[in-house]
Each structure stands twice: as C-alpha cells, then as structure tokens.
C-alpha cells in the first residue's frame, strides 16, 4: 500500500467529517467504490480492498436497508467526485 497525502480545505473537511468517521478510510472506500463503478476493479477486488473475507459477508454489508451496491456507488461516486475536484483545485491531481 502506498501512502497518499491530501490537503483538504477546512470547509471540505468539516462537510465530510462526522463524529467517529475516519476521513482517510472514507476517502479510501469512496475511491475504491468509484473504481468498481467504473469497472476498473472487480467485485471480488472491491470486497478484498474493503476487508471482507467472503462474498457473503460483503453482500450482507451491501444489502441492509438502503445500503445496496447501487446506493453505495452513487454515494461514493459523489464523494469521489467532490474529493477529486478538491484535490484538483489544490493542485494535487
């Protein structure tokens, strides 16, 4: 794994942060889900990247309530887009 440093404006950090939320992990998950949505990685790769040992565990994570893959992809896509736009504005991309 390669470390990546991203400098976020306070305004963006406040908008994305919530009590108990690990921003680094949230950014990682959003980028991984976006890579899956764009078919750059497989379902199995996304599952392993997010730390689920079996497909059944991963599918169970995706299914509760409104948290299905489509919803995850939409949310993570929007998050990844905001993240990319901010990083671009800061000269990181």
Description:
The protein has 93 residues and is an all-alpha fold. Helix 2 packs antiparallel against helix 3 (43-49) and helix 2 (23-37) packs across helix 5. It is globular. The protein is built from 5 helices and no strands. The protein has one domain (21-89). The two termini are 19 Å apart. It has helices at 10-16, 23-37, 43-49, 55-62, 69-89.
Helix content: 55-70%
Number of domains: 1
Give the overall form: globular
Please give the largest β-sheet. none
* Poorly predicted segments: 66-71
Rg result: 14 Å
Strand content range: under 5%
What's the total helix number? 5
Distance between the termini: 19 Å
Q: What oligomeric state best describes the polypeptide chains here?
A: single chain
> Could you give the count of β-strands?
0
Q: H/E element string? A: HHHHH
On the 0 to 100 scale, the average pLDDT is 74
Q: Which terms would index this structure?
A:
93 residues, mainly alpha, globular
């Amino acid at each position: 794994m390669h470390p990546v440093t991203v400098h976020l404006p306070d305004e963006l950090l406040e908008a994305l942060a919530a009590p108990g939320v690990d921003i680094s992990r949230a950014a990682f998950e959003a980028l991984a889900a976006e890579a899956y949505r764009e078919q750059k990685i497989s379902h199995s790769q996304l599952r392993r990247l997010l730390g689920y040992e079996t497909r059944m565990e991963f599918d169970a994570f995706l299914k509760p309530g409104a948290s299905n893959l489509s919803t995850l992809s939409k949310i993570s896509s929007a998050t990844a887009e905001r993240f990319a736009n901010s990083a671009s504005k800061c000269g990181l991309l």
